[in-house]
Amino acid sequence: MNVEQLIKEKKGTIVDVRTYGEFIGGHVSGSVNIPLDEVPYRVEQLEAMEQPLLLCCVSGNRSGMATEFLKAKGINCVNAGPWTTVNYYQSLIEEVQE
Question: Which CATH number goes with the domain that contains 8?
């Protein structure tokens, strides 16, 4: 299942791995901020979230690194790429609901 479909079906948890400063400058509604450098220390918290985890950042680079790390830990996750793309998919869902 692709990222757009997962968001449309409201499956999983959107996790933004950008820094807190980047996150507060704009983020996907309902997403959780866990900066990439904190991911190794917050594995238990990530395991407890509804999976799959949809990981996003600015370009997809940091979310790709987080995806590789978490998959190695057995966590169901996908690299959702840029947060702006995830936000776009999310906004399409919200428009339909209005």
Answer: 3.40.250.10
